[in-house]
Amino acid sequence: MSSIFVSYASSDISHVNSLLSKNKNINFWVSFEEKGEKPLLEPGSAWREKISDAIKESSGSVIFISKEYLKSEIVLELEIPLIFKKLEDDKNYKVYPVLIDDSDFELNSYLKDIQLFNSPSTSLSSLSGRKYQLEIESLIDLISSNIKKNVLKLPYFKRSVMAFIAFLAPLLLYLTLQNNSADEIQVTSNLVEESNIEENLNKEIPLDLEKICLDNSVISVENENEITNPIDFESLSKTSCSGTFFAQIYFLENLKIDINEELPESSLTIIYDDIILNCADSFQSTYGFTSNETLFDFQYLYFFNKENELGYFCYSVLKELNSENITLFTENLIALDIEEYRLDYGISDISPLYMEVGDCANLPKDFYGSRNENSLIIYPSISCMYPHNLEITNKFIFNRKEEQSLDQVDEEIFSTCALHAELMFSNIDHELLNNETKDGIPWLDKFYTYDIDKISEYEPSDVICSIGFSGDRFDVKKDFSFYNLVNDKLFQREEINENFIEIKNCSDEPLKATALDDDEYFYNKFDFKWNFTDSLIKKFYFSFEDFASITELEFSPLSDRDLEVFKSWEANVEIAFSTRTSEDKGIIKALVELQNGQVYEDICEVNLYLENE
Questions:
Q1: Within its chain, how far is the Cα of 507 from the centroid?
Q2: Which sequence spans correspond to the domains of the chain?
Q3: DSSP string for residues in 1-23
């Protein structure tokens, strides 16, 4: 197993010890650590050679940067040059620079432009207690995540919560964000047993989780609740659990963090991931089924206690079909017999690689909870007329090219699946498809699955593309099939005898664009329509160009069904243009190449403007 080299000054050994004490699975190479019965660097040994070999054989390095570190001769003359030489030669090599104090690292030619793990305001020497622990845990979590990207399991499964916007800059913008969402998750805190809940809350809130239920006021509370805006637990509007209610609290934990502390972003990420894990795991242990199997789901709220300590609790809800709304339920209803439920709905577990286009399912049972890394991903397959949140939309065989890395494989497969979903479903005339979350993210998620063992050995592998439905708070479940909606649209398709492709809403009106230094993007939707009856389509090509960049999208039909659907179809794409001034323009191009060699295209040039000009 490759190691992570740790570079540090001897005066900073306490931080190294903190890293090692929190570590469970990462193979760190530290000079003082013992290997078997001998230290890694023995007195009188050829230590320069051993350090050099350790760096060359490592897959990454942690650099603890401090004033003393930048004075170390070994660091400046040996370790840093070798680490950055390895970084230059190996594109998969990772360096994790951790700032300990207010050192002048910018004066070092190697460190001046590198992205730090933490900021000067969260340097390790400025943190203490839980905030310090969270920073170390966040570092370990980041390293573990990067290691897992290079050691993938069978089968590989990824998700993108963003829709076509994810292609913009770069194509996999969301995957970089969401590998966190669904790939590999570990539990980092234990569930709070009912017997010690009072102890965790400093005994000021006597709770019996069996009987804490909430009325519909929880809906308005949830809309305002954030980690920076927790609620007073006593202010919750509780109701009897003997009748109907809107929510039932089933798990609670005190994080023992002062609500006035400002937490770094990395710590917030760890807290969020832990909450999702704990809520998902405890949901299953409490009710006997997972949140993905039925219309029951979980949500959580942040609260504070009398000591102004931050905590959170998880609560169960009953979702309505085809929406994010929740509805009333009872204890008897949620205490369902899951085996009987699965039998009634014809749910059967199946590997997605054995599913076919048009099949429906629910997300894997462990999608949000703890996962055995060695277990296969299994979908609960179900009829599309029953509640489901996953549909298989495409299936094709992928052959890995000799020069392709696994990351490049992911990028190509995801772009194929996502663009296919956008072309196929973006113009389906159904009100639910047009719903968006309050953050502007469509409900249509993209997923893909393939056999990582086969791909790793350059063997052909089936790829399964699927779509799912996510809202702000819950995965939305539907009782209709997008696959059947496509069939309905095909049946109603108008007969056109000419061949063309056009950008329907190309206009002389200027479009709002995004300034280079602006973090808020303005998206413009472009509608494309085409019809081809004389020959089958070979490929589609779309490009979106501004002064700074060009985004190119290319797709070839993968099946006979694709050829039938796409010979006469419509689709829309949302794009954010960048501009410096109102003199800049955006250029949109749509092109279709037919199998007989003919090419059809349409080009739209638009003026751009900035909101404040």
A1: 36
A2: 4-150, 156-176+338-491, 194-334, 500-609
A3: ---EEEE--GGGHHHHHHHHHH-
Residue 180, helix vs strand vs coil: helix
DSSP code of residue 489: H
Token pair, residue 400, equals 């890995």
CB 445 within 8 A of CB 160: yes
Q: What is the tens place of the pLDDT at every residue in 234-251?
A: 888 899 898 999 999 999
Give the number of residues written for the chain.
Answer: 613
**How many angstroms separate the CA atoms of 114 and 112, rounded?**
6
Q: What would the two tokens of residue 534 be?
A: 């004389």
Q: How far is the C-alpha of 118 from the C-alpha of 270, rounded, in Å? A: 14
Tokens standing for 316?
């169960």
- Evaluate the CA torsion angle 378, 381, 387, 388 in order and state its sign: positive
Q: Is 69 within 8 Å of 94 (Cβ atoms)?
A: no
The domain covering 500-609 belongs, at the CATH homologous superfamily level, to: Macroglobulin (MG2) domain (2.60.40.1930)
Phi and psi at 478, nearest 5°, equal -120, 160
Q: ω into residue 387 within 30 of 0, thus cis?
A: no
Equal fold, 4-150 vs 500-609:
no
Q: Please, what sign has the CA dihedral across residues 366, 371, 372, 377?
A: positive
CB 4 within 8 A of CB 28: yes
Q: What does residue 397 show for φ and ψ, rounded to 5 degrees? A: -100, 130
Label residues 423-446 b or e (16+ Cβ within 10 Å = b): bbbbbbeeeebebeeeeebbbbbb
Residue with the two structure tokens 């013992």: 34
Q: What is the pTM of this model?
A: 0.65
Determine the residue type at 46. A
DSSP symbols for 70-102: GG-HHIIIIIHHHHHHHHHH-TT-EEEEEE-SS
At residue 202, does pLDDT exceed 60? no
Start-to-end C-alpha separation, the chain? 57
**What is the rounded CA–CA span in Å between residue 278 and residue 291?**
12
User: Is the pLDDT confidence value at 206 over 60?
Assistant: no
- Cβ atoms 246, 214 nearer than 8 A: yes
- Mean pLDDT lowest among 18-22, 186-190, 234-238, 444-448: 186-190
- In the block, tokens 């709304």 appear at 325
Nearest to 544 by CA among 571, 526, 520, 568: 526
Paired tokens of 429 = 């005339």
Q: Using CB atoms within 10 A of its CB, is residue 244 exposed (0-12), middle (13-18) or buried (19+)? A: middle
CATH number for the region 4-150 comes to 3.40.50.10140
The C-alpha atoms of residue 584 and residue 278 are separated, in whole angstroms, by 50
How many Cβ atoms sit within 10 Å of the Cβ of residue 292?
23
Residue in 157, 25, 45 with CA at minimum distance from that of residue 445 = 157
10 Å Cβ neighbour count for 216?
14
